[in-house]
Design goal:
Layout (H helix, E strand, L loop, with lengths): L18 E4 L2 E6 L4 E4 L2 H16 L7 E9 L2 E10 L5 E7 L8 H14 L3 E5 L4 E7 L4 E5 L7
Parallel strand pairs: 6-7
Antiparallel strand pairs: 1-2, 2-3, 4-5, 5-6, 7-8, 8-9
């Protein structure tokens, strides 16, 4: 098996990913969207995160949307991963960054802009080496820091 991003071990468990090469570029299979996506460091993180939440945490793959469209300040944006609750509301937004991108206030600003439009219960920011979790209490306008992914409900 090829190691597409040399020496890049993430905090997510390894999995048996599928790669293909086309026109000199490497693609990784996205089992949620059922298609190959151009492999980048960010996509490497996203696919590992998706495998972790569906295979290990048992989040239902049918409730996951990849690159969901969001309008932010009249600009069209795409969230990396949105997970929906059974009632159709957004349960969680996950923003994936390349491993070399540090998780800072600047990276939180992007997911916070999405939150203003979506009102998700949970926000997750990951670069594959570090993952941060926030629980949003919309009723009391508070946030709680979590130490792990919440149970899907």
């Amino acid at each position: 098996m090829m190691q597409p991003i040399a020496d890049l071990t993430l905090q997510f468990p390894p999995y048996d990913y599928k790669l293909k090469k086309k026109d000199g570029k490497l693609y990784i299979f996205d089992s949620i969207a059922k298609k190959y996506r151009l492999l980048s460091p960010e996509e490497w993180v996203r696919q590992h995160c998706l495998q972790y939440i569906t295979q290990h945490l048992r989040y239902p793959s049918g409730m996951i949307q990849i690159e969901g469209g969001i309008s932010v300040n009249q600009l069209q944006r795409r969230s990396d991963i949105q997970i929906f609750a059974n009632d159709g509301t957004v349960f969680m937004i996950i923003e994936c960054k390349a491993p070399h991108v540090k998780l800072t206030d600047v990276t939180w600003q992007q997911i916070s802009q999405y939150q203003k439009q979506i009102n998700s219960k949970y926000l997750v920011l990951t670069n594959g080496l570090e993952t941060r979790f926030l629980e949003i209490d919309l009723l009391h306008q508070k946030t709680n820091t979590l130490t792990q992914f919440p149970i899907y409900s």
